[in-house]
Amino acid sequence: MTAPFGRRLTTVSQGRDVGAYRVITAVDREGPDPEPGQFYMLAAAERWGGGESERPWLPRAFSYARARPAHGGGVELDFLLEAVGPGTERLAELERGDGLWLTGPLGVGFSPADRPLLVGGGIGAAPLLCLQDQHPDAPVLLGFRSAAYAEAAALFEGPVGLCTDDGSAGRQAFVTELLRERLDSGEGQTVYACGPPAMLEAVRALCAEREVPAQLALESGMACGFGACFGCVVPTRSGYVRLCVDGPVLDAAELVTAEVPGAGH
Amino acid sequence: MTAPFGRRLTTVSQGRDVGAYRVITAVDREGPDPEPGQFYMLAAAERWGGGESERPWLPRAFSYARARPAHGGGVELDFLLEAVGPGTERLAELERGDGLWLTGPLGVGFSPADRPLLVGGGIGAAPLLCLQDQHPDAPVLLGFRSAAYAEAAALFEGPVGLCTDDGSAGRQAFVTELLRERLDSGEGQTVYACGPPAMLEAVRALCAEREVPAQLALESGMACGFGACFGCVVPTRSGYVRLCVDGPVLDAAELVTAEVPGAGH
Amino acid sequence: MSRSIELCGVELRGPVLNGSGTFDAIAAHRAFGDELYARFPFDAFVSKTITVEPREGNPLPRLWETPAGLINSIGLPNKGLDGFLASDLPRLAEVPVPLVVSVMGFSVSELKRLVTAVAARDEVAMLELNFSCPNVETGLIMGADPGETARAVERLRPLTEKPLIVKLTPNATDPAAVAAAAEGTGADGLSLINTLKGMAIDPRTGRPWLGATTGGVSGPAVKAIALQQVHQVSARVKLPLIGMGGIQSGRDAADFLLAGATAIAVGTENFRDPAAGSRVAAELEAVFRNEREYLGEWAPPMSGRGSQ
Amino acid sequence: MSRSIELCGVELRGPVLNGSGTFDAIAAHRAFGDELYARFPFDAFVSKTITVEPREGNPLPRLWETPAGLINSIGLPNKGLDGFLASDLPRLAEVPVPLVVSVMGFSVSELKRLVTAVAARDEVAMLELNFSCPNVETGLIMGADPGETARAVERLRPLTEKPLIVKLTPNATDPAAVAAAAEGTGADGLSLINTLKGMAIDPRTGRPWLGATTGGVSGPAVKAIALQQVHQVSARVKLPLIGMGGIQSGRDAADFLLAGATAIAVGTENFRDPAAGSRVAAELEAVFRNEREYLGEWAPPMSGRGSQ
Ligand SMILES: Cc1cc2nc3c(=O)[nH]c(=O)nc-3n(C[C@H](O)[C@H](O)[C@H](O)COP(=O)(O)OP(=O)(O)OC[C@H]3O[C@@H](n4cnc5c(N)ncnc54)[C@H](O)[C@@H]3O)c2cc1C
Ligand SMILES: Cc1cc2nc3c(=O)[nH]c(=O)nc-3n(C[C@H](O)[C@H](O)[C@H](O)COP(=O)(O)OP(=O)(O)OC[C@H]3O[C@@H](n4cnc5c(N)ncnc54)[C@H](O)[C@@H]3O)c2cc1C
Ligand SMILES: Cc1cc2nc3c(=O)[nH]c(=O)nc-3n(C[C@H](O)[C@H](O)[C@H](O)COP(=O)(O)O)c2cc1C
Ligand SMILES: Cc1cc2nc3c(=O)[nH]c(=O)nc-3n(C[C@H](O)[C@H](O)[C@H](O)COP(=O)(O)O)c2cc1C
Ligand code: FES
Ligand code: FES
Q1: Rounded mean pLDDT of chain D?
Q2: Tens digits of per-residue pLDDT, A210-259?
């Protein structure tokens, strides 16, 4: 599905905290339905620029977490945010009624597969929410730093496999340990994963060893989101590809590593 | 009176509209009492930068309009603002509790004189308020664009000579006409004036013709306010002088003209 | 939209181009579909710079946000001349405005090959010569040195009748001297500015952030610098100038026209809004409409040239 | 505050200077009284550039605010050499840190007069040579041309034992070549960057805003450009560098040290806060304290040189 051309001004209909994260909801009147794994470039309509060291200035990329038909037409989008710098901090401040610039949906999302297994690390849980809406029976494995972050697990339907780095919620483990156990017990034909670079790399390696196909939603620094700047490239077996137009979801088989210099925080 | 060294963070105790203008009040705990005609460099603590075309970025100069001892020590300062661009617009948004960076009091104010006549044009009324506090019996002549601006006249004690460009409040006249009448009737031994460049120039010429001494509070674009940048200079009979340290009040006799390129708006 | 202009003999429906490397019409068509062509934001389209050999581009990371600007070290990834001609050019021909192809050579002979091959194609209306790279034969940055520029343009000029636009680098002591050299040897127009050399330090490691250590600064942060160079160059040469550097609004665009440019290009602002070109054009039109006198007073680069 | 450093053989209590022309200690003393000296924000004080003849400076207006920056066209107003020596220097001697006097000459003979007269005064610890102006004899900007720089430094070097710091202009194709020329002819240190040429259009008239048409851009907008030049110059020369351009915070200052500077200078940020130098020094100290490893990893320009 292609995006409407140009950025458009939407209105935030809700902003709420979910543990250490924030969910902002906006109604996109003109936009088409996005597909899981696709993303939007977002910028606050006010006070975008001029923060600490005069940033943010460029828009920021966000997977949509959930989409539903909006009252009165269009689609209502949820974004799950982690405030890690000036852009995400500003977006996390947005409240009902605030303006939000949005371009998208952009990029190539997850491609259909049977018996998927959903694996998320931290804020990487975001695109798994809409994936779960599509695959309600798929097992969901989530890893977080600590209990405050793990509250995002409650956004999923039904029980999920949960672990935290410090054991303050769920098991004390990395989510890749949970994944290893599931894979070793033969569960899941395809892994859909999103999370920090090191986790994705572990997922890639685990799946590669076991010859389980995996689709990984990567991150890299993006300036434009629509293939204009060549800033977001990641190395693949066939050279650099632009994550914003050829991803953000890539087939793990394409990657030598999921650790991209400069990605993550 | 010298200023404390460095800018300091104060808190806005009140922001209120006065017709088309805005008055913001802040408590300066460390600062000394300013003298009429002195000014402060102000910047909002938040959202200073990043507006339309990423401005404001430098602080802006403002005469204090009134000063009084503050509850709990220090001095409470009123500033009368006209929103003419990004800096004044941002300052005019400030409300009780907002942070305000302040440096000052700066510059050389009005020097003592007998039987003064106070003449203000538009926002030039600001420094006349504290002058009136010192010279309660001095006649005050004020000119404004229209009634909405003329509401600032109510900030003065007692009756004032009032005119507007469009006659919507007081006489339809320029304030220099009022001044001419007073001077011609022999009133006033010294003129204290503040206002837009063209008005000050008319005041200067009127007073020069009649050999009445005049002290004019000028404006020019300022980057620093403490003599560092040499950006605020105005031409005088003895060459350029820095308005921020040698003014903003200048003896009219020093000036060939009060119209400074780039000043006003 | 707006009034048409003539740029180097080519009629354009308006004065707004894109900066090379800041809009990929092929990728944007994938992202936005046919609406892109229906509402194409530029009046001529400038391709990303191509080279003779294919290039992967620079190591990662490639982007750093600065106060009101961006540092990029993209490194001219492209399919190379043959790949471009075979797979990109036919698709760029679908773009509903004249096409400018930007080329960079690391020697005059590379440039000759590029100009000959690209100019031969009907899809191409004009060529832009990106001279911001060293000549491997002399070690000098072509676009920073009047002699290098003259030697190159002189030998490229006979190869085509199509307009040759020289893109100037701002990292030069005297861009106007380079401009004069290009004019003197037969260039048809000039584009300026390219990015300014810049660098950022990774706050977490204390080492340079960019994979290539340094990059180029663009965006509003450089607008004042760009405007000065346009002004200075336009005082020295008669060639039409395409002004760029930090243009975000129609007012910014008007500033460049007033400083002496015939057309303007939107670069980094495209990243903030893919349709920025259209917005800039509409805002510029409003400046013309509402402030005729304002523009008339100084140097009305479009009136007279405009066809309506 | 903080750790002392040695700069061109002069011991300073810390690494934070001011950029020439961005702080007038005499005027600031009038504004802030003795508290200025008690809390003096810099570890060495650099005077505004002086010339042989008195100058009124440029026509008005002289300032324009840009995105995260400032354009100034002040035009070096000063009392001239004699006026400076007679009335400013005695007052600058009260400043509680070593004094650097910045001089500019429009010919080598003017420079010789300035250096001889200024260096003879005990109040002066070092001299800064502001080479951002044309040599009236050759028409070339001294600091943009390695040959001009070498010729000047060569003839000034014998005149004094005091450190000579050359201030580089960023408006040059190859600032590192100029730096190398200064090093080769006996300069003791380098300051960079001066302002970048810039311009603004008055939105009300469509004409250049500044009385002098063009000016120089400073502030955070130029930081990435300055950092790149410091990095590039430090790779080429061994001289100590005073890095500046858009420094607002201790983190910015650390960036310059990591890029190869020995000391840093705060310029336009002084206008936003007269005590900015002290804040930058304190923040820099915190970076050193809390992130030792961070600074150690790359190039610890202060450790080793610092005396405590
Ligand atoms: C396809 C995609 C989908 C995403 N989905 C989500 C999501 O659903 N939810 C979510 O919270 N996040 C998501 N992200 C991540 C999000 O885009 C980043 O967290 C955000 O861009 C950070 O911006 P910032 O201004 O807050 O932080 P920044 O300051 O930009 O910091 C983020 C990281 O960028 C680097 N950095 C620091 N300073 C700079 C600078 N000056 N210039 C450039 N880089 C710098 C550092 O590595 C830093 O750790 C997604 C990213 C991509 C690419
Ligand atoms: C000593 C002194 C005392 C003052 N007292 C008061 C007071 O009591 N109350 C009050 O309301 N005002 C006062 N002023 C005026 C006030 O400082 C200005 O109105 C204010 O600085 C405008 O800032 P701005 O950002 O709102 O507008 P700006 O955008 O800065 O516009 C103001 C004018 O500056 C010019 N300008 C436009 N763009 C730029 C730019 N990018 N860079 C530089 N100049 C530009 C134009 O001439 C414009 O009309 C005083 C000024 C001085 C010098
Ligand atoms: C990400 C990026 C890539 C660029 N690639 C090219 C290029 O391939 N060829 C070229 O001539 N200029 C290139 N430029 C420079 C722009 O065309 C333009 O000259 C410059 O960015 C200044 O304009 P702006 O400030 O509006 O972006 C690039 C700029 C950016 C930001
Ligand atoms: C208003 C102003 C006046 C300046 N005057 C001088 C000067 O007289 N001599 C000089 O060498 N540099 C001068 N400079 C340049 C600064 O010293 C400094 O090199 C430059 O501003 C970059 O630093 P910044 O971005 O921190 O301001 C001046 C800069 C400004 C903003
Ligand atoms: S973010 Fe610009 S090309 Fe991908
Ligand atoms: S405002 Fe800087 S010297 Fe007056």
Answers
A1: 92
A2: 999 999 999 999 999 999 999 999 999 999 999 999 999 999 999 999 99
| Whether the Cβ atoms of residue A152 and residue A21 lie closer than 8 Å to each other | yes
- Place C308 in a pLDDT band, splitting at 50, 70 and 90: very low
**Kindly report the CA angle at D215 between C188 and D144, in degrees rounded to 5?**
70
Whole-model pTM: value is 0.96
Which of A164, A64, A69 minimizes the C-alpha distance to A106? A64
Instruction: Return the closest-CA partner of residue C45 out of C71, C70, C13, C9.
Output: C13
Smallest CA–CA separation between C222 and chain B, in Å?
13
- State whether B49 and A48 contact (CB < 8 Å): no
**D255: which residues sit within 8 A by CB, 6+ positions away?**
C200, C201, D223, D227
Reduced to 3 states (helix: H, G, I; strand: E, B; else coil), residue A17 is strand
Mutate to test the interface with A, among C49, C78, C273 (most CBs of A within 10 A): C273
Q: Hey, which residues of D are catalytic here?
A: 133
What's the rounded Cα separation, in Å, for the pair D302 and D295?
10
Phi first, then psi, for residue A11 (nearest 5°) are -120, 135
pLDDT of residue D300: 39
The verdict on the CB of residue A252 being under 6 Å from ligand 1 is no
A40 lines ligand 1 (CB under 6 A): no
Distance between CA B81 and CA B132 in Å, rounded? 18
Residue of A nearest to B50 (CA): A50
Regions of chain B short of the pLDDT cut 70: 50-54, 264-265
- The alpha carbons of chain D give a radius of gyration, in whole angstroms, of 18
Counting ligands in written order, the one closest to the CA of D74 is 4
Mutate to test the pocket of ligand 5, among A40, A106, A230 (most ligand atoms within 8 A of CB): A230
Which CATH code for domain D5-57+76-200+218-307?
3.20.20.70
In chain B, the residue whose alpha carbon lies closest to the alpha carbon of A90 is B47
Are B199 and B179 within 8 A, CB to CB? no
Type and span of the H or E element at D47: none
Question: Where do we find the tokens 């409240």?
Answer: A95
Interchain CB contact of C31 with A (< 8 Å): yes
Cα within 13 Å of Cα(A96), Cβ side: 4
Opening angle at CA D261, ends D260 and D264, nearest 5: 150
- Residue B54, chain C, CB below 8 Å: the answer is yes
From the CA of D102, the nearest ligand is: 4
Q: What chain B residue is nearest to D75 in terms of C-alpha separation?
A: B230
What are the chain B neighbours of D69 within 8 Å (beta carbons)? 57
Q: Is the Cβ pair A230, C77 closer than 8 Å?
A: yes
List chain D domain ranges. 5-57+76-200+218-307
Annotate C103-156 with DSSP letters as a single string.
E--SSHHHHHHHHHHHHT-TTEEEEEEE--SB-TTT-SBGGG-HHHHHHHHHHH
Q: Is the CB of D58 under 6 A from ligand 4?
A: no
| Contact between chains at B57 and D61 (C-beta distance less than 8 A) | no
Residues linked to residue A162 through DSSP beta bridges, in sequence order: A142
User: How much is the pLDDT for B226?
Assistant: 98
Q: What is the rounded CA–CA span in Å between residue C194 and residue C228?
A: 13
Indicate the residue of D71, D141, D207 with minimum beta-carbon distance to C173.
D141
Measured in Å, residue C221 CA sits from the centre of ligand 4 at 17
Q: The complex's ipTM?
A: 0.96
Q: Is D122 exposed, middle or buried (0-12, 13-18, 19+ CB in 10 A)?
A: exposed
d(CA A228, CA A240): 15
Q: Within 10 Å of residue B191's Cβ, how many Cβ atoms?
A: 25
Q: Report the sign of the C-alpha dihedral through residues B242, B246, B247, B252, in that order.
A: negative
H or E element: which one contains D154?
Answer: helix D146-156
- With CB atoms and an 8 Å threshold, state whether A240 touches C275: no
H or E element: which one contains A162?
strand A161-164
